Amino acid sequence: MPLLVLAFCVGAASVQLLPTLPPPAVLLLPATAALLVWRRHAVIAALVAGFVWTVLTAAARLSGDWPCARDRERIDLTGVVAAPPTLREGRVDFDLQPALPLMPGQGGAKLRLSWYQPTRTPLPGQRWRMTVLLRCRNGMSNAGAPDRELDLLRQGIALCGSGRPGHPAT
């Protein structure tokens, strides 16, 4: 049994070596093969099962992400402030839970918004409407620096955006 658990974990960890996730439809053949050889080659089947399970879980988690091809798209947005804001010089950062999904499959994804030159501070539970520029969730890759994209993913932030002067929130 420990060997099967180890094989499953190795299969799951091997997904980290891929540059991009394969489409879920591609996994149908390996998953079927693992089911067919389970009795004779349980270790190989566990390795494939770990790989397939991890790819499907990651694909489901990332399915609601704002596509980077739509970066800097301006939209009118209504939502509820989901957390206390972070006040910075010249801007305020806050999380917003949109009233309606921005994309199919996005579900309860939150946005991290930066509002430049704010006229007031958003408070948790307030309903806000504003025009924002949306950005896909990404970050810079700096050695020794925190991974911003991973931090946002852990916090359930699907995309980022910013409000601009001349586009007031109400």
User: Order of SSEs, N→C?
Assistant: HHHEEEEEHE
Number of helices: 4
Q: Sketch the major β-sheet.
A: 5 strands, mixed, barrel
First-to-last CA distance: 59 Å
Biggest sheet strand order reads 1-3-4-6-5
Structural class: alpha+beta
Number of strands: 6
What percent of residues are in strands?
25-35%
- Write down the CATH topology of the largest domain: OB fold (Dihydrolipoamide Acetyltransferase, E2P)
The structural domain count equals: 2
| CATH-defined architecture of the largest domain | Beta Barrel
**Amount of helix:** 25-40%
Q: Give me the Rg, rounded.
A: 21 Å
Would you identify the regions where 5 or more consecutive residues have pLDDT less than 50? none
Shape: elongated
The chain-level mean pLDDT equals 79
Q: Quick one: CATH class of the largest domain?
A: Mainly Beta
Can you walk through the features of this model?
The longest helix has 21 residues, at 42-62. The protein folds into two domains: 2-62, no CATH class; 68-163, OB fold (Dihydrolipoamide Acetyltransferase, E2P), CATH 2.40.50. Strands 1-3-4-6-5 form a five-stranded mixed beta barrel. β2 and β3 (91-98) form a beta hairpin. The protein is α+β, with helices and mostly antiparallel strands and 170 residues long. It is elongated and about 70 Å long. The relative contact order is 0.15. It has helices at 2-13, 28-36, 42-62, 148-154, and strands at 73-81, 86-88, 91-98, 110-116, 127-136, 157-163. The chain contains four helices and six strands.
